[in-house]
Amino acid sequence: MDQQGLSAPPVIGAAAPVPYPTAAAAAPYQAAYQHLYQQQQQQHQQLQIFWADQYREIEQTTDFKNHNLPLPASKKIMKADEDVRMIAAEAPVVFARACEMFILELTHRGWDHAEENKRRTLQKNDIAAAITRTDVFDFLVDIVPREEGKDEAVPRPIPAGR
To answer: Matching InterPro entries, A to Z (predicted)?
Structure first.
């Protein structure tokens, strides 16, 4: 300080010490991050197993007459496009299988969200969270809106190679 009680101005470029949390204070955050990372890795691994099972099932399919989704409904959806005039016999079969796989993956991802929230019942907000977290489902964001106030922040996982 000088004679008038004023202190010297701070030196430009000199950084003030930044307080960093101690290792003990950072431990809960690190543990939570590790848990989230492990959970994402486990979910990714489960999805890889799911798709491997789907491919195996497709390769082993010999009976194309039995379906989980009704073929007339598939055909009706296909004919909803006014440009579609004729539909080959095998097209609704492939379409129905693709729809089934779509529903299964979306359900699988929604179930992961339900389990993260310690629930054993799949809810609409679980499906909405699965849509929000998965880039490939972005086209559904406006169709299945998230309910405000439920599971507020839904982080998108770091994309891993699929």
So the answer is: CBFA_NFYB_domain (IPR003958), Histone-fold (IPR009072), Transcr_DNA_Rep_Reg (IPR050568)
